[in-house]
Batch of 4 targets.
Target 1
Amino acid sequence: PTISSRCQRVDVRPIDTQTIADQLTFISNNEGVTLEPAAAWAVAKGADGGMRDAQSMLDQLVAFCGTQIKESNVLDVFGFTSRETVAQLTQFIPTKKTSEALNILNEQSTAGKELGQLLDDTIGCLRALLVAKVDTNAGNDGIPQNLWETLTKTSATVPVDRLLHLVDIFADTEARMKWASNKKLHLEIGVIKAIQSLNDVRISDVITALAGAGSLPQSSTPTVQTQAPAPEKVATTAPTAEESPAVATPEPQKTPEVAPTPEPHQPPAEIKIDLQPEPAVPSPEPVC
């Protein structure tokens, strides 16, 4: 407590991306370096809230590219992906274009781009679309206006819970990619899983259909309707003499048959066998 009472605590928080971009532009103008606004934004986005990291990246760009720095230079030196490519990848997910999305991943991986940064930018686009659906006054999170309008039109039919589920899927993918050696494989699996999740019937859809506010896909098998049998008519008029039913005469009662009494058991008759001795057979005479 004695040491803590004599110390001053300073909480370091991430700096806003636009603030970093403005500061980089200010430094470039004082140093005689031409820095495009798109390049300043790309550096500020890659710095992830750190002003010192952004200034270090600007020094590297001046060393590699000279006094003329464009967005393509930033993307080539640090392996970042352009905002147009990120917006195009994000657009292919709600439209369920799996092959086109995988082609973008393959192109970026072949070009040596940082796939972790690409996934982070994609999550940022989905997050911006999710916030825009909840809050109509939310901004476009630094995405160019023409790309932002295309993204909002594409995701207009995707409900909020679906977008939230997409963000969860990519967040799990980001956690797996952090320590994986093959980042491309996990990113491809995440994109495929995200697109296939849009076709799943969720419990909220079932509840909405049961409440009468929606409908579930019906089966194409026709249902056979069976008609209930018509009830039989009951005669209401009394039967006439001719139609009166005949009176059944009672049958005579049959006397019960008496079972015959069994005869007493008699022993079997004795059989006498006359045993007489057989006649002796003469032995044959010897032959000389």
Note: The chain is about 50% helix and 0% strand.
Target 2
Amino acid sequence: MRSLTLASILIFGMLAQGKTLSAYDSFVLCNNPVEYWLLKKGETSDASPSRLSGTYGGSCRGQATLPNGDTANVFNGLDNYFEIPDNDSLEVTTTGVLTIEAWMRIGAYDFPDNENNYVHWMGKGTSGQHLWVARMYNQNDLSRPQRISGYCFNLNGGLGAGSYFQDVIGLTTWIHYTLVINTKATSTKYPTGYTKVYRDGVLRDTDSLQEYNIIPGNGIAPTRIGTRDFNSFFKGAIGKVAIYNYEL
């Protein structure tokens, strides 16, 4: 009851400030994310109690309409991104668990500014300060066409532990993406935890962090949407990015 009361106070506060919340936004906020960026065109503020706002980089951002009628940012695949400064609320090490969810829609089958035939369309990490990333491969990749994945890394980088789904995806298809990194839910199968990836609320893959000896650290890299570290840029729409410090 306490969490719902806090969420209600927050929602009424946002309405008083003239911010329009959809039923979806209210539902997300009632699940107590540590951060929630609506990513409407030009919107930089965090809708969660943390108020961790970001800034836009690049030029010529567009606007797309989500399935519920809300709007999301269209990134041009060349230099667009949204950056949030480093904060302990965005670290796996704070609670041992991180859940990242977002809506995304591709704007190209093969991304023009890619690295090794994929783009990092969201993530937290730079050289020597890696944590997690959301990745998508080009359609023309022979072994992983249109694979959408999520990885967790050691701070010094190298290979990451990751989960994925690989479907045929059209330019009009909206996808609800969720990546879970959990170092607390250990078991014989997952002795140091796991990553999970969901598409549209359906679990598609689970992988062990131990497979690549991943022990997440507390880094200082910013979180970016539309890119991770400027080595590739996503062409398409992204909206409603929420981060939780527990597993949904």
Note: The helical segments are 2-16, 23-30.
Target 3
Amino acid sequence: MILAEGITEEILLTAFSNAAGLDFDKNGIKIVSSGGKNKILKQYDRLRREAGFPILMIFDSDGHELAEATKKSLRSIDDVYVIPQGEFEDILPEELICKAINSHYRLFGEINVADIEGTGLKSHILERLWQKKGFGKFRKAEFASIVAGHISNATSLSTELKVLFSKINN
């Protein structure tokens, strides 16, 4: 089981799983969107006492301290992964983001990598882009679904996603 902070991870990890060569359905891997870093810990605490299967918790970088504190109480079959910088959106390949947005919003004009580069969280950059381009309100779940529809093969995986899937596979 994978306990993740939000819906973005739930949607996109499932979509990326086939490209990573690890079909979640065939391997019995379930992703649960916990609704935040503090809720991951509550779910883990309950599940580790009840479940006999391995659990991987995925935290955004701002959950680093919670993740470190949790490592002391992990069962030997469980693990923690902290996104090195930012949130899940920050480890998505920028070319994939552009391809998905351009395909979905093609009537509103194209974007390129320069439009989504910058300092700060990718979700904040995307919120500003949505406003600038007139795409409406930025919603993470909708964005994740748009990107998920454009994941085709292993070239859709960033280096950091490959690291994460290696941890999931182990």
Note: The helical segments are 7-19, 37-50, 64-71, 94-104, 113-116, 122-133, 140-148, 159-169.
Target 4
Amino acid sequence: MNLSLSGTVVATHQDGTDLDPLWSPRPFLHPVTTLAGTTVTELAPADHRHHLGFGVALPDVSGTSFWGGRTFTREHGSVLLDNHGRQRHLRTLAQGPDHHTALLSWTDPRERELIVEERALRALPLDHRTWVLDVRITLRNTSDQDLSIGSPATNGRPGAGYGGLFWRAPLGPRPPAVTGPDGLRGEQALHGASVPWLSLAGTTDQDAPWTLLLHQLAPDPDPWFLRAAQYPGTGPALAWDRRRPLPRQATLRRRLRIAIADGHQDDHPALADAVAALT
């Protein structure tokens, strides 16, 4: 399934059914491209083989990993466990050239369903060099027990509160420049910051400049997990420093918009305002 604008494919949706079980198989978007065709997602890079473009990944749902790779434990640090879950497509609810809404079933290693997710994706035009991906997710606990969402940080690794909507960008010749609101700049300033938006401005190995601006459409934004120097990846963290309860039949909703632009933008606050104003 592709997302297109004016006949141009800007994102490809993959179901993940062919993935290694150790990567917590799940649907994801890759490649995602700028309007000029520059790819701004990365798939299974050598540094983190379980990073899959853009999607929803949680390292700990009551002990099940929907992130892939190793699990951080208080007793033994980062270890490989037989705890990998799977997200499977149940059915499509709506589909068109520029949008796709689907139901997904999240199951644990014993094939027991823990969560049903509704995921809505829409491509929106902004200007001649920028388009916007609008993402809405609803996670509903369909198990027979109360669940909770954790992270390596909640399991004893400070600063590693990743998990949720996560974007892995491609490595370039240098780390991307990172910008946020109120003059915030750099990985150290924005990692863990509960601000509405942040941007990454990078360059590919082919010297093609790109900009991503991720904007949480919420009155109380989640803290950002951010990596720039080691690798380019970011997303709002659902369990930054404490576990997030998800009781039986409870739902959790999040919405994120990502501006995807050719070149490096001059006015990031103006771009953030334009992204938020889209209807």
Note: The radius of gyration is 18 Å.
